[in-house]
Amino acid sequence: MTRDAKQRVPCIKGSIFKFKGSNNWWIKYYVNGERVLESSGSDDIAVAQKLLAQRNAELLTDTWNDPKKRKITVADLYHALETDYRINAPTVAIGADKATRAERRWKARLEKHFGHIRARALTTDTLNKYVVWAQGEGLTNATINRDMAALRRAFYLAQEAGKIERVPKFPHLTEANPRSGFVEEAQFRKLISNAKELWLRALVTTAYTFGWRKSELLNLRCKQVSLTERTITLNPGETKNDEGRWVPLEEDLFVLLHALLIGKKGTDFVFTRNDGSRVRDYRDDWTALCKAADLPDLLFHDLRRSGVRNMIRRGVQQKIAMLISGHKTPSVFQRYNIIDETDIRLAVQKIAAGAKVEQAKIGQSVGRVAFENGATTLQIPAPKILPD
User: I need a labelling partner for 258 at 20 to 30 A (CA). Which of 41, 129, 241, 367 fits?
Assistant: First the structure.
């Protein structure tokens, strides 16, 4: 496009002009030697002059923002987050899973509230209004926090890439205590006795034995199970904490996994259905299994909690138990090492047993002292009667 030179209005540290055929005034100024053009959006020259003065002030106070960045929306940042999940995840499968979950979150709620907003215009007040709306819709604080965490990560990625200069403060709500569900040994036996399909019985047994995450189990391939050495290996980058793990197999689990591996190649998935298809979603199978076992309230994740608790109950050192379950920090591990009434009863029994041992050690000396003092029976003083 060419400018109408006659309509060019000189101005300090920039100029005001009109493009030929346009009614609106434009401003031009330079930042680090690069020309910047902006429309004032008005045919009033006073508006353009005010805008240019504002840009000059921003440059002097180091608060200037690139006009291109002003047009970036929250949607642009969030879609970049989805891309980051896909290209920077340890494996393609993990990246695809994270991106899919992020996309569902965006479509379900976030797009409606934030998709149209310019990234630089998003404020903590706007985020707080979303929190109020979400709570009114019955969303839990945990779900709202996950929404805020996704948006916050999108903004920090954009800031690192130089797309935005500022990240608003995101609200964080107090969450309810983690669910304390677990599976007792008798309940576990009921589950596997009702698991008619081999893959489901093996999946439940592995989760209960080692406390592994469902993603670690469903992504397990045959080459990671050594039948000669009777071991399972989770490779680095295929786990949530990106660290590899190795465990030996006891007899029952070895038999189940050996049966699953028959006729499969090393690259095939361990957990497949009877028709050979990979197990991706087992929620319906789990619901039916719990119903058959008369345990309708159990979650599959309860197997992980139970595996952790069982290891500690059975004398496995915390450090080793963490290596098996894949917990990286003791604080998170302790949330899974749930204490219940049974644990407390066992603790009291240990206290009582210890007291009996100590009594046995000193029993003779106590008896001897009592005999030498002529005491043959325990003397209980009569209760005192107090006057009314």
Answer: 241
Residue 378 pLDDT > 50? no
The dihedral through the CA atoms of 41, 42, 43, 48 has a sign that is negative
296/291 Cα distance (integer angstroms): 5
Which residues neighbour 369 within 8 Å (Cβ) at sequence distance 6 or greater? none
Residue 190 confidence class, pLDDT cut points 50, 70, 90: very high
- How buried is residue 319: exposed, middle or buried, by Cβ count under 10 Å (0-12/13-18/19+)? exposed
- Measured at the CA of 120, the angle between CA 116 and CA 123, to 5 degrees, comes to 85
- Taking alpha carbons only, the member of 116, 149, 158 closest to residue 131 is 149
What residues are paired with 11 via a beta bridge? 14
Residue 93 has, within 13 A of its CA and on its CB side, a CA count of 13
Tokens linked to 232: 């399972």
Helices (H) and strands (E) in the chain, counts: 16, 7
Taking alpha carbons only, the member of 221, 315, 209 closest to residue 271 is 221
Helix or strand run (H / E) with residue 308:
helix 301-313
Phi, psi angles (nearest 5°) of residue 102:
-65, -40
Predicted TM-score (pTM) of the model is: 0.53
Q: Is the separation of the CB atoms in 58 and 120 below 8 Å?
A: no
**Packing angle, helices 141-160 and 124-136, rounded to 10:** 150
Tokens of 8: 């060019």
